[in-house]
Amino acid sequence: MFSVRLLVEAVLLLARAIAEALREAPDFRALECRIVAAVQDVARRLFEHACAYLDEQALRARDAARLAPVHTKAKKLQTVFGALYLRRRYYRDRQTGAGRFVLDELLGLEPRQRISPLVWERGVLQATERSFRGAARALEAISGGTVHVSAMGLWRRLQAVGAGLKARTSARREALFAFGEVPPGRAVPEALHVEADEFFVPGRGGAVGIKLCVGYEGKEPVGRGRRRLVNRRVHAAVVDGATFFEETVAEFGQVWDLGAVQACWVGSDGAPWAKQGLKEAFPRATFRLDPFHLRRALREGLGHDPAAHAAVQSALAAGRSWAEVAKDLEAWLRRVRVPALYGPSAGRTWVKHVLRELVRIGSVA
Questions:
Q1: Which of 89, 136, 295, 349 qualifies as a FRET site for 321, CA 20 to 30 Å off?
Q2: What's the burial of 128, exposed, middle or buried (CB within 10 Å: 0-12/13-18/19+)?
Q3: Whose CA is closest to 235, among 277, 202, 263?
Q4: Could you give the 3-state DSSP secondary structure of residue 33?
């Protein structure tokens, strides 16, 4: 693909640029910038040569009886290496009369595309974490000033990416729930954990609720006091609860054989939409309240009584059912003094409050 002469020229060009940078750069930052620019320049030259080679190979491999070369046209493409100029052949299809840039088809480039896929990918990622204007500035900074994308361009690209993902998810959901097509997932983990939640972000018409579901096979240590989720999958959407969980099942089914999973745990913060949706989407799973909301429920129900906390936490840690925990808790409360803040005759009221709070937030029923 690359001639020896071209490779030698590229190496010599890079070596000369580095030598000049070492002589002229006033500090390490300037030296680093000069070398990055030199590497980008050499990579850009080699990239253009490689594309020219592919275009030449396409000319030789084409169906000559059908595709007639007409002329050569340059295409400017922004890449992480800087502006890339591709000279590719334009063909006329003798049967249909349509024009084609075969090199664009080989590289997967869309008509009139001026930004490389990698630049778009990095730009969209930046736009999910900051404003579009800030994302454009960040993209220019991390590329060393070689990439210039407008905030509106990033917005349009993000809309296109979102529309594509939404269409794919809807198609998978329809295939499963409308036509009964089983997803291709084959993995069968020892245990599957699914957690659902919803958070709100400000929007033009008010707060927008984004539903989120995470599936994973467990947790593994990655350092002192740190763990990460194993084979994590995430689905997020702004839809109603029923549609959201159908989409979640269809998406997770691309990886896991959900019908063959024996041990499945589902959890949420206790919100009715999430609790009910998880039960319907994963009917054989066991529901559990996430630790944060479980502790908060205990605080709301038990106040600051350390003995009550210890009794309930021990029962939960032992894996006892909510019915058993409630029964023991009620018996234990009959033997202790009710806090004064509830009044001298509020013993049964306090017991019912504790049980109601636990059942409301933490139970499966």
A1: 349
A2: exposed
A3: 277
A4: helix
Q: How far is CA 284 from the centre of its chain?
A: 27
Strand pairing category for 206-216 and 233-237? antiparallel
Q: Which DSSP category does 74 fall into?
A: E
pLDDT tens for each residue of the chain, 365 residues long: 667 888 888 889 899 999 999 999 999 999 999 999 999 999 999 999 999 999 999 999 999 999 999 999 999 999 998 899 999 999 999 999 999 999 999 999 988 899 999 999 999 889 988 899 999 999 898 888 888 899 999 999 989 988 999 999 999 999 999 999 999 999 999 999 999 999 888 877 888 899 999 999 999 998 888 999 999 999 999 999 999 999 999 999 999 999 899 889 888 888 888 888 888 888 888 887 777 777 777 776 666 667 777 777 777 677 777 677 777 666 666 655 544 444 444 444 545 555 555 554 444 33
Long-range contacts at 214-218 (CB < 8 A, ≥ 24 apart): 215/248, 215/252, 215/256, 216/192, 217/189, 217/190, 217/191, 217/192, 217/193, 218/189, 218/190, 218/191, 218/193
Helix axes 347-362, 291-302, angle to 10 degrees: 170
Residue reference for tokens 């071209």: 6
Q: What are 184's two structure tokens?
A: 């291709």
CA 295/CA 306 separation, integer angstroms:
13
Which residues are CB-contacts of 66 (< 8 A; sequence separation ≥ 6)?
93, 94, 95
Tokens of 264: 């499945």
DSSP structural state of residue 181: P
